[in-house]
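Customer ticket, subject: "Can you confirm the structure for LicD family protein?"

Message body: Hello, I'm evaluating your service for our small team and ran a test protein. I'd like someone to confirm that this is what the system normally returns, since I don't have a reference to compare against.
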Amino acid sequence: MGIEQQVDKLKKGPLSPEDLRAVQLIQIEMLAEVDRICRLHHINYAMIGGTMLGAIRHKGYIPWDDDADIGLLREEYEKFRKACETDLDHNRFYFQDMRATPGYRWGYGKIRRKNTYFLREGQAHMPYESGIFIDIFPFDNVPDGKLAEKLHNLHCTIIRKILWSEVGKKTDKNPLLRFVFFVLSKIPLKMVSNHLQRFAEEGNHKKSRRVRTITFPAPDKYSEGNREWFEQTAEYPFENLILSGHRDYEAYLIHKFGDYMTLPPEGQRKSHPVAYYKLLDE
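Agent reply: Thanks for trying us out. I re-ran your input and got the following:
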């Protein structure tokens, strides 16, 4: 069913404070499910980004945060996506990534909650289900050596822009860039998906000191991180759960956020833009 047929059943963004908390509570269900599967299959994972920051600074969600992020080294990610085929609670959740979901254009996975809806702005035309979600990020090798690293990161940027083109051709404010994205969107998605898979596999033949999510839309220095942060983990309280995170959380959070214990100014405490959404039992 398209957005046009659903809109009268949906709430329009932004999220109210009460609904933001309701979204967080739904995501906590999914975090618990990820943790359950990973413990069952001895898969090593870590909270990343604002989720790791929330665990340390707030013992749970950053109050204004509307998403949750999990990171795994590529080998662990592959074990996780395979485990989801048989052990994910399919009555409540579904898993998406480029190999599992036709038309999906992100280089990382998502766990989504059935019977919910959460549409990011500019993505109403994307041809897949859009329930409330958490992100599952695979981390791949970044080659050692400054030149090799720069070339690798440029390659990552090109792949990311091609994948984003289906959204960028409709949403970018620059008409010239909208045209560029329109042209890029004509590249067959299957071709891009296969190239991404080969690129990751080739890069992971030899372990490197640093890793990154190939398609993460952030400056390279924030996309990257030390491999040991994902190999050496510990457990931390997060809301009513105990989740895995970086053992050396201080080094990780300084790398990502600088002075991570200081709250940002109120004007910077923002959730992601959501166009339409539906909570459970609505």
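A couple of notes from the result: The two ends are 17 Å apart (CA to CA). The chain has one domain: 3-278. Feel free to reply with more questions.
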